Amino acid sequence: MSARLHICAAGPGVTVQDAGRFGYSRYGVTPAGPMDEAAFLTATRAVGAAAAIEISLGGVTLETEGASLAVAIAGGAFDIRLDQQKLPSACLIPLTPGARLTIRAGVSGAWCYVAVGARFDLPLALGSLSTHARSGIGPKPLAAGDALRFLGVAPAPDGAQAIEAPWLARDDAPIRVMLGPQDDYFTPKAIEALLSAEWRVGARSDRMAYALEGPQLTHSRGHDIVSDGAAIGAIQIPGSGAPFVLMADRQPTGGYPKIATVIGADLGRLAQLRPGETLRFTKVGWAEAVAARAALKNKLAAGAVLTPLAAEVSTEKLLAVNLIGGVVSGRE
Amino acid sequence: MRYDRPRFLDQGEAALTVEFGDAVDAELNALVLALDGAFLQEGLQGVRETTPTYRSLLVHYEPLEMSRQALIGWIEQRLPVIASEAKQSRAAVAGASRNDGGVWVIPCCYDPEIAEDIKEAGSILGLSPSSLAEAHAAADYRAFMYGFAPGWCYLGGLPEALAIPRRLAPRGLTPEGAVLIGGGLSLVATNPMPTGWYIIGRTPERLFSLTREPPFLIAPGEALRFEPIDAETFAALDARAAKGEILARREERA
């Protein structure tokens, strides 16, 4: 069975992502993949999908045609509406033909995932469906007027359900990093500053890297290294002394020293910060980082709790919803 | 400089940099590619992929499947074999994935009409465009690594006379197939990008194309040479390459 999903409106940065494109970094190809893996897995596992639509602050409006789809949504605290009904920021819904799903930036968070109980009818590029916009590999970023075709459509649920995934709750604890691999290129004062300062996410942040604003970090041995492989989460310090954290669309190699690396369990939390928001770093060792990784993996494996939502929207609920504010900030 | 023993540097809990030295050097690069070859051949459980560079190998692994210690132990066990393989491969300039000792011959047009910066680079180096082209085409290169963008292949073996510093500010987007020099190296570029290097030629060959099999032509560690062609030949070959044809050929090393 097949179905189509229409993109009625889309801000910038709406892409298709699967787990990522691995094995080609040796040819200069970026892995891409989701910015917040825990949110991506929460949405995809709820409907048994391998890929999802990743939505940025610009939001998106979707409609189906042909068949009802099971749609799971998870990510930051986005504002999600099915026609007039306001839904929790993580939910599983039936999207029936003619119904309109609108996702807009809510109170917090920068990325939201929409997974469909079906297979994208899209060709794999180097074994993956992930969009890497800069190199043009993978599906093109989605825009208003596009339609996605799906194959092997699973039955849609009877009613909307809330996905209770406590690991997606906002948590302002410091972002954990491991020092290195080039912490020896920095003065002890610079390392201390990295770990003690309050950092602000800069406006020039995107899927490739998050720019950080704060104190200038001084190199002790220059800012040029012979190119070296770069992992997700690595914090590069160019000549300006202003850090940037490499994210999903990073270059596979780089020539600036990397003072520290954000641990895997905290990458999604960092990704969900918007430009202008602040964060702090704290240092951990390998064992602690692996323990945090295992804890998150176990939570994800245990699965989210689904709670049925009332189909009827009460007047009280409608009044509680701000129907005037929250105009979509993206280009529409 | 090449270290006596590699340094193991963490990049978070799921990536380990194995650093053999801190220079751009064929011997060093051969060690990196020999270790990379061991990972490719043995397909170690828990290792997601490896990224070879001039001087280090980045191992992306799943620490819940393999500990850092076990990974380092596996690498250390292979170091003696890797050292001897690297010596052999340096003699043959053989690749990690192709061991026939051959060399890729890549057509390259050095005509100033197509090679946008050859006059400027020549005037900085004190060479006429034609002697710059002649020197570039006379050398044997080795693909040290890819980086920056898909199909951006960094080459060692540039003659000393062509060692030119990077521009102070980047130039605009490179055309497809740009052949560049900068910072003592040469480079063939596929995806258009801004760069601080100088375009001294263009190849009609696509080092990377998603619509062709194989998508990537040259593996890190392989040898290559440029064969000068005129602007007319460039146009004809470019049309053939656009249809998916591979233009480069493998030759025995002289």
UniProtKB/TrEMBL annotation, chain A:
The keyword Phosphoprotein does not apply. Residues 26-299 form the Carboxyltransferase domain. Gene3D superfamilies: Cyclophilin-like. One of its GO terms (molecular function) is hydrolase activity. Signal peptide: none annotated. The keyword ATP-binding applies. InterPro entries: CT_A_B (IPR003778), Cyclophilin-like_dom_sf (IPR029000), PxpC (IPR052708). Keywords: ATP-binding, Hydrolase, Nucleotide-binding. It holds the Pfam family CT_A_B. This is Allophanate hydrolase.
Automatic annotation (TrEMBL), chain B:
InterPro entries: CT_C_D (IPR003833), Cyclophilin-like_dom_sf (IPR029000), PxpB (IPR010016). The keyword RNA-binding does not apply. This is Allophanate hydrolase. Keywords: ATP-binding, Hydrolase, Nucleotide-binding. It comes from Methylocystis iwaonis. GO terms for molecular function: hydrolase activity. Residues 6-218 form the Carboxyltransferase domain. The keyword Disulfide bond does not apply. SMART domains: AHS1.
